[in-house]
Amino acid sequence: MRQSNIRPFGAMPDGAPVEEITLAGAGITAAIITYGGAVRSLTVPDRTGAPTDVVLGFDTLEDYRVQDKYIGAIVGRCANRIAGGRFSLNGREYPLFVNNGPNHLHGGQVGFDRQVWTVEELRENEAVLRLVSPDGQEGYPGRLEVRVTYTLEEKSLSIFYEARSDADTVCSLTNHSYFNLSGQGRGDVLDHRIQLCAQYYTPADRQSIPTGQLAPVEGTPMDLRQPVQIGARIGGDFPQLLWAGGYDHNWAVDGQPGQLRPAGRAAAPDTGIAMEVETTMPGIQFYTGNFLAGCPAGKGGARYENRSGFALETQFYPDAVHHPGFPSPVLRAGERYAHRTVYRFGLD
Ligand code: GAL
Q: What is the distance between the alpha carbons of residues 98 and 300, in angstroms, rounded to a whole number?
């Protein structure tokens, strides 16, 4: 399969080639690299019609390999944290790689964000990437076959995640794009407005591990049901925000998991670019780049600091494998995992 919309993007230390795909849809273009299956750019028109790249990314593979912020990447086998870096399933204990204090984060040391995906299908507006995660990788049971389909349609990016395992395992896949709707590299996102379709969130301890509660957002700064400026309450004295250094929490998306439904919306005042997120997943992590500083220079020499971008990561709730009250991230042998998240762009 040789097409005009795929080009070399470097090579891994073992020589494995990494490629970049460019996709075009109506009013939107994207670049996806096979390293981590990462979205490297996503360009939509601002209110004057000027093409604006709204995601953070890097110019070289080396920069992607050096950074540890999961920029643009597909995250798996299990997004977010697993407390104590272990879980038990069917009466057996599975120790995982511990990479975040005492906990496991975003699939471990060499998660799906650090592996090279294979391009299985390619069209002008669509790419199907595939990854096989062997039994035991990072400690997880079962050989997991994953397919991620990126599709550009009318000013939208749809990400369809499919997976199947040959043994019972845990699976929660997300994309870790950092958005800046003013344009990547153009300062922080504190003036953006954010809205989340969630009556409940999952309060967490100082290590960002959920307590297991589903707490009403009502009467707290976690109430984002009406649009709120990201900067308005981020520095307040609400313990959840203090402990995480800003927003870095999971909200329980209203409505029925499994059904594609609105999860959130963000908009930038200067460009007028608005983004709506829809998902079939139970939860969404709203993360304001609290630990973003310290990466290499971004695209075109952009400087990325804390709050230079925000992420909206659709997922099972963090540490769900330890909380019987949360929707279960367990994927049974032979069962099909299928979830979709759509990022839809427009003008405010
Ligand atoms: C987010 C997570 C943050 C941080 C970040 C990576 O998904 O919620 O706590 O770990 O990834 O730097």
A: 34
Alpha helical stretches, state H, the chain: 61-66, 230-233, 239-244
Paired with 153 in beta bridges are 156
Q: Can you give the pLDDT of all 348 residues of the chain as single tens digits?
A: 456 899 999 999 999 999 999 999 999 999 999 999 999 999 999 999 999 999 999 999 999 999 999 999 999 999 999 999 999 999 999 999 999 999 999 999 999 999 999 999 999 999 999 999 999 999 999 999 999 999 999 999 999 999 999 999 999 999 999 999 999 999 999 999 999 999 999 999 999 999 999 999 999 999 999 999 999 999 999 999 999 999 999 999 999 999 999 999 999 999 999 999 999 999 999 999 999 999 999 999 999 999 999 999 999 999 999 999 999 999 999 999 999 999 999 999
Q: Give the atom of ligand 1 at the shortest distance from the alpha carbon of 75.
A: 7
CA of 210 to the centre of ligand 1 (A): 14
Token couple for 253: 């998306």
- Quick one: the chain helix, strand, coil %, rounded to 5? 10, 40, 50
If you take atom 12 of ligand 1, which residue's CA is the nearest one?
69
Our mutation pick for probing the ligand 1 site, out of 291, 310, 313, counting the most ligand atoms within 8 A of Cβ, is 291
Do 258 and 293 contact (CB within 8 A), yes or no?
A: no
Spatial distance between the Cα atoms of 208 and 246, rounded to a whole number of angstroms: 12
Q: Which residues line ligand 1 (CB under 6 A)?
A: 69-70, 105, 208, 248, 285, 287, 291, 313
Active site residues: 176, 313
- Identify the bridge partners of residue 266 per DSSP, sorted by sequence position: 194, 275
Rg over alpha carbons for the chain, rounded to the nearest Å, is 19
User: Do 220 and 233 meet the contact criterion of CB atoms below 8 Å apart?
Assistant: no
Residue type, 286: F
Q: Ligand 1 mean position to 189 CA, how many Å? A: 17
| CA end-to-end span of the chain | 40
